[in-house]
Amino acid sequence: MSSRVEFEQRSSAGGQVFFDRLETRTDAERAQDLARQLPIQVCAAREVPAFAERLREVDAASVTSREALALLPVTRKAELLERQRAGCRAPGAGSAIGSPSAGHASDEITTEFDPFGGFSAIGWPHLRGLSGARRVYQSPGPIYEPEGSGATDYWRLARALFAAGFRSGQLVHNSFSYHLTPGAWMLDGGAQALGCTVFPGGVGNTELQLQAMHELRADAYCGTPSFLRILIEKASETQLALPHLQRALVSGEAFPPSLRDWLREHGIEGYQAYVTADLGLIAYETTAREGLVVDEGVVLEIVRPGTGDPVPDGEVGEVVVTVLHPEYPLIRFATGDLSAVMPGKCPTGRTQMRICGWMGRADQTTKVRGMFVHPSQVAEVMRRHPELGRARLVVEGEMANDQMRFLVETNRPSAELASAVGESLREVTKLRGDIEWAEMGALPTDGKVIEDRRTYR
Cα torsion at 85, 89, 93, 98 (round to 10°)? Predict the structure, then answer.
């Protein structure tokens, strides 16, 4: 019997079940474990090219606390993207789709072929002679993420699933995308680590997915909250009962209280998880419904946007995360998300820090229908159509009903051009949007290329 199962059985005798003993450590125990893990992680990071230079003067043995960690430089997603592009353009790599134009700062980066930009310690033989990568994913940007082969639950999602009530023997209907991006595989691995059976529903095909949920009597759902609502509404229209579906773990977009309560009215307790393609699980919701508990496999900081300086607890700032495994050793990786540390401990007895959840973006990058959209992607669409002027991507609607409008300046609007620009937008962002024309010089000159006008309730 595994130590985790033994702990679960012992803790359940006291009326509260935890995933493992890590969730109930004292502050002193957690600090002691961190003092042991951080030097190992910094040493692992120094072995990969992207961190070798910036951490060259750092004494890894001295990085034994959150305060010492806060002195290290922050790595931003834009830098990861630029280094990856440079690695894909290296000799022998061929030209990369969406490469920056001549004169861009990233053109100065020189490296061997490396689609991970020198951040990964795993790969396959012709990638710096590395090995150990089980899968490689492509997220919008495009950004490539490696997945190691050392554990079934590589991205640590089992902890969040367990907190949401998922248990061994249940059938989990997974409606995250299995195509290109890692989302579905993250939840798939976590569910299997718990002993669940997984139905790989993926995205779309609403009628077929609903039929499978009904006929297979799915116990639980993973996916975006908006698609779960669509499925339930479709089930009501077609009179297909889903009496066995009682729990859900949702991610990829906001999960407002109104939608949580709506799901409960339909017999489903939904919980949210804060997950990114680069880092895996960051934080998760518990039955207390008070913020999100930070995962035990990461160190989370809230810093002042644009800096690496931690802010006082309770103050809103940017989420910066250090993962505690050596295969993809991201140190102080800035997510671009805003949040704040909540005071006190979780009423469930979990002792890790809590955050308030997603409170917006520290930059213009935003999430639409579960997919990140970057300013660089807007630039790539416009690069493909040099005859156009400036552009602005406007995201509107209520959460779980995102709508995109792509406002573009031109003196020669046409249906053919609108179709071509729309196709480019879909190819680059993996999302569809309406194309709207503006006269040359009509769009504001305020520096915005992505404007989020969604309402939150």
Answer: 60
Which helix or strand (DSSP H or E) is residue 145 part of?
strand 143-148
Q: Would you tell me how many other CB atoms lie within 10 Å of the CB of residue 183?
A: 29
**What is each CA distance from 431 to 141, 353, 367, 405, in whole angstroms?**
13, 35, 11, 11
d(C-alpha 166, C-alpha 253), whole Å: 21
Question: For residue 121, which of 56, 60, 54, 48 has the smallest C-alpha distance?
Answer: 48
Whether residue 154 has pLDDT greater than 80? yes
Say how many CA atoms lie within 13 Å of 171 toward its Cβ: 15
Per-residue pLDDT reduced to its tens digit, 387-437 = 999 899 999 987 567 899 999 999 999 999 999 999 999 999 999 999 999
Closest C-alpha to 166, from 268, 235, 296, 276 = 268
- Alpha-helical (H) ranges within 76-157 are 77-88
Give the angle 63-65-70 at the CA atoms, nearest 5°. 75
Closest CA to 402 of 438, 443, 366, 359: 366
Rounded Cα distance, 424 and 417, in Å: 11
Give pTM, 2 decimals.
0.77
Domains of the chain: 367-452 (3.30.300.30)
Residue the block writes with tokens 């609007």: 413
Q: State both tokens at 56.
A: 């060259």
How confident is residue 13, by pLDDT bands cut at 50, 70 and 90?
very low
State the Cα angle at 191 between 246 and 257, rounded to 5°.
45
Q: Give the model confidence (pLDDT) of 246-298 as tens digits.
A: 999 999 998 999 999 999 999 999 999 999 999 999 999 999 999 999 999 99
Tokens of 161: 């699933």
Q: CA triplet 198, 155, 8: central angle to 5 degrees?
A: 75
HSE (side-chain half, CA atoms, 13 Å) at 157: 33
Residue 317 has pLDDT above 90, yes or no: no
